[in-house]
Amino acid sequence: MKIREVNENKKQFIALLLLADEQENMIDHYLEKGTMYVLEDGNVKAECVVTDKDNGILEIKNIAVDPQNQGQGYGKALIDFLVSKYADEYSILQVGTGDSPLTVPFYEKCGFVRSHNIPNFFTDNYDHPIYECGVQLIDMVYLQRYL
Questions:
Q1: For residue range 84-124, what is the model confidence (pLDDT) as tens digits?
Q2: In the sheet that 113-118 helps form, which strands lie side by side, from edge to edge?
Q3: Which has the closest alpha carbon to 135: 113, 105, 94, 109?
Q4: N vs C: which end of the chain shows fewer Cβ within 10 Å?
C-alpha cells in the first residue's frame, strides 16, 4: 500500500471525488487549493483532499474509497496517514459531513468527536436533495480529532 500526493490533473479522480461530494461545482471550490492524496494498493483504492483552515486546523474536504474496496481499512489508513503527516503542523484534524449512519460512526471509530453543526448546509448549497442510507442530509456535522 502506498499513499502519494497528487499535484496535477486532480480531476482524473473525479469518479472517487463524486462519491464523497456528489456535486462537481462544490468540489471545484476546494480541489485546486487543497492537497490531494491517493492511496494505491495495486491500483487507486481511495483519495482525500485536505485544506488549511487556519488556527491550527486541517480540514478533510473530501475522502472516498472505491465502493468495491470499502470496509477494508483504506479510509482509516488515509486518516492515520494524515494524523501522522500533519501532527507537527496542526493541532486539530476536522471533517464536515452529513448526519449519516454511514459516515459519522466511521469518523467516531477513527477518533473524531462531534464539534458543531451548520444548519441546512446541504439544502442551502446543493441543487438537489442528497440521501445517504435512506436519510436526507440537511445539516453539516463537524467532527474533530486532536493531533
A1: 999 999 999 999 999 998 899 999 999 999 999 999 999 99
A2: 2-6, 35-41, 43-52, 57-65, 92-98, 140-146, 113-118
A3: 105
A4: N
